């Protein structure tokens, strides 16, 4: 299965991506995680991306598309993958389509996790993430079993620098202007599946699993 996950910041893409990638044994590719790893390692890519991410802006398409192409060319993507946070612009979606077409492949389904903007701020400001494995928690809705520690790897969870009220507002604007048009893009190709992201994490996962099961 070649799956992409769409939705506003805080919709639950990372949370669902982890569950789906475990259930279907496909790699979870998060462009946000790739950028954050490069930022913490101070690579040239990280240095370039940091300024955009801290402001809540998108990293330019040219940089982002190349990273994803390199990642998708790896062997573990042969039988499928789950892209979390890519594409975020129509240009990225077209580049992905071209890249897959070279191998006679297409995206099997674009899952849009739909959450109205009034839910987003609470989700984002309460989010805590594991800098080591990328797991996402919420202080109220999905707290770690041991306070402050990642369930999977025991590391201290942290608050992302771009999860402040101010930056979140900018990210929602960026989403509405640059990423929301992708819903129509995938709808026109009959690849779009919309799931109500205001349900519990378990219910969202159940809906997504049923949809994937019906496409396999
Ligand atoms: P969230 O999960 O909150 O939606 P991500 O972790 O996916 O956020 O992304 C964090 C930031 O990384 C984005 O605000 C953006 O600056 C950058 N980023 C991630 N993916 C992309 C992409 N496909 N195109 C451009 N910028 C991206
Ligand atoms: P995204 O990757 O789309 O930005 P995350 O998966 O990181 O979103 O989720 C954002 C925040 O909301 C996290 O704190 C997460 O624990 C929480 N969350 C995710 N899904 C739900 C849900 N269905 N109900 C309540 N909180 C959720
Ligand atoms: Zn962890």
Automatic annotation (TrEMBL):
The cross-references to Gene3D superfamilies, in alphabetical order and at most eight, read: P-loop containing nucleotide triphosphate hydrolases
Q: Fetch the PROSITE patterns from UniProt.
A: ADENYLATE_KINASE
What are the subcellular locations of this protein?
Cytoplasm
Which superkingdom heads the taxonomic lineage of this protein's source? Bacteria
Q: Where does AMP bind?
A: 31, 36, 57-59, 85-88, 92, 160, 171
Start and end residues of each stretch annotated as LID = 126-163
InterPro entries tied to this protein:
Adenyl_kin_sub, Adenylat/UMP-CMP_kin, Adenylat_kinase_CS, Adenylate_kinase_lid-dom, P-loop_NTPase
Class of enzymatic activity (EC top level)? transferase
Quaternary organization: Monomer.
The record's similarity note reads:
Belongs to the adenylate kinase family.
Put simply, this protein is called: Adenylate kinase
